């Protein structure tokens, strides 16, 4: 058996016939809602421009496993614009639930829907969250070290709002009135372990209530859910509103770097900061955007995080989407790929068709209409015998803890590594080709196997 490897070639192809509704002021999120090991899609947003909410949608689409989607009729979700959604197993039953916030027309909402495991959702009234809109943000993370998912929300509820709700593990939440966060709308929430101490810190961006201006603040977690402002990082990171931010290890040094983009009260700004043991330094300034959306994702399967950035570009003054490839050291080069340019929209990436590379869905206002497009990634590994992946068997996937790996034909393995969706390597126990994921939170992880013939990548779902 002989395998040869050389370089990558890549283009994106628009899927001509899709059932999705075009929106602006919306959100797109991939998640496996029905446990069939493919990624379904939730779309929120304004499909009509009617301020009474009659065109606000929350539509759920099922994936048949090959990237063909169909609308799931009869979902009970409330349609919203200028909102947010987040999937996570909030009640500990092994499936993905969802929390949705935004403007439903008459008012603002935040609602939790529990999944029965087959993709049927029922609204839960066990806890009343403050309804928020105004480009509201939601994020789930275990902030207090009890292994369940807590909720942080920001947005406009009549006033700017920031609330931390602690989960008891069954999906019952309690408001933490001691949380120190300033009050925000028009921004983002991003959890990450920035200082390497094993807990979830958080970066908030947006328009803040005291100064009535753009602000970006990083709070460090002491491990039990008590947060303290990191004044040094906060002074370093660009203040932005109408903004987005995201963490990823862009330079391969094992810690999480960050990008922020948005309006800084003078202009649109997009800045990358590298992290060295919790100390952030400006790494690069990219094209400025307003109403941006950011997605770090590995588009060329080289093991590092590339970047997709959309919004109203400052230089051109119109909606654009830019794709940057990473050289593994955090240096980004813009590509010539032409995809839908949008503002007041969203970007999401995932391997929708099971071919091992990440595809794209892009929505928003394209300067003419509310639009949405789906692109498949036509990544080609030049000179590669694609049977390499068939030489490895992974089971069970999804897994509740133990993942077994069988190598055919005595394939020689150099290393096995596990990465989270931000590109950070995760420490796991690997013994005799058995990977123990028991201590990891539910979610999607990337397994990288370096063999004598090259690297193999496999998406793993931890239930």
UniProtKB/TrEMBL annotation:
What InterPro entries has UniProt attached to this entry?
A: FG-GAP, Integrin_alpha_N, Secre_tail
Question: Which portions of this protein are annotated as coiled-coil regions?
Answer: none
Q: Which UniProt keywords apply?
A: Signal
Q: Does the keyword Signal apply?
A: yes
> Is Mitochondrion one of the keywords UniProt gives this record?
no
* Alphabetical list of Gene3D superfamilies matching this protein: Integrin alpha, N-terminal (2.130.10.130)
Q: Which domain of life is it from?
A: Bacteria
A Pfam short name: Por_Secre_tail
Report the residue ranges that make up the Secretion system C-terminal sorting domain in this protein: 395-461
Which protein is depicted? Secretion system C-terminal sorting domain-containing protein
């Amino acid at each position: 058996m002989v395998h040869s490897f050389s370089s990558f070639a890549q283009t994106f192809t628009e899927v001509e016939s899709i059932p999705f509704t075009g929106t602006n002021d919306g959100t797109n999120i991939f998640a496996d809602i029905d446990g069939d090991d493919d990624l379904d899609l939730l779309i929120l947003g304004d499909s009509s421009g009617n301020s009474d909410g009659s065109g606000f949608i929350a539509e759920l689409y099922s994936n048949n496993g090959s990237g063909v989607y169909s609308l799931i009729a009869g979902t009970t979700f409330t349609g919203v614009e200028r909102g947010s959604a987040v999937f996570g197993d909030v009640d500990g039953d092994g499936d993905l639930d969802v929390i949705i916030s935004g403007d439903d027309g008459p008012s603002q909402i935040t609602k939790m829907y529990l999944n029965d495991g087959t993709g049927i959702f029922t609204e839960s009234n066990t806890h009343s969250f403050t309804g928020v809109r105004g480009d509201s943000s939601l994020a789930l993370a275990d902030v207090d070290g009890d292994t369940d998912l807590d909720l942080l929300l920001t947005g406009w509820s009549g006033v700017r709002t920031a609330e931390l709700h602690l989960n008891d593990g069954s999906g019952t939440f309690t408001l933490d009135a001691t949380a120190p966060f300033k009050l925000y709308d028009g921004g983002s929430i991003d959890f990450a372990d920035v200082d390497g101490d094993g807990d979830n810190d958080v970066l908030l961006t947006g328009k803040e209530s005291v100064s009535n201006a753009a602000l970006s603040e990083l709070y460090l977690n002491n491990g039990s859910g008590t947060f303290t402002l990191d004044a040094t990082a906060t002074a370093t990171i660009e203040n932005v509103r109408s903004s987005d931010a995201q963490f990823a290890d862009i330079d391969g040094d094992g810690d999480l770097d960050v990008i922020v983009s948005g309006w800084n009260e003078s202009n649109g700004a997009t800045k990358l900061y590298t992290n060295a043991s919790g100390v952030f330094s400006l790494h690069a300034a990219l094209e400025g955007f307003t109403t941006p959306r950011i997605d770090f994702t590995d588009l060329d399967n080289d093991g590092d995080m590339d970047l997709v950035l959309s919004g109203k570009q400052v230089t051109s003054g119109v909606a654009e989407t830019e794709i940057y490839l990473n050289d593994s050291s955090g240096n980004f080069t813009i590509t010539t790929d032409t995809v839908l340019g949008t503002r007041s929209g969203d970007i999401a990436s995932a391997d929708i068709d099971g071919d091992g590379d990440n595809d794209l869905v892009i929505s928003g206002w394209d300067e003419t209409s509310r639009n949405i497009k789906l692109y498949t990634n036509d990544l080609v590994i030049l000179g590669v015998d694609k049977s390499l992946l068939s030489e490895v068997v992974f089971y069970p996937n999804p897994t509740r803890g133990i993942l077994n790996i069988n190598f055919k034909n005595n394939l020689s393995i150099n290393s096995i590594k596990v990465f989270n969706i931000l590109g950070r390597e995760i420490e796991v126990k690997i013994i005799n080709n058995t990977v123990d994921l028991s201590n990891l939170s539910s979610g999607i992880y990337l397994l990288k196997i370096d063999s004598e013939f090259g690297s193999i990548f496999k998406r793993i779902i931890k239930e």
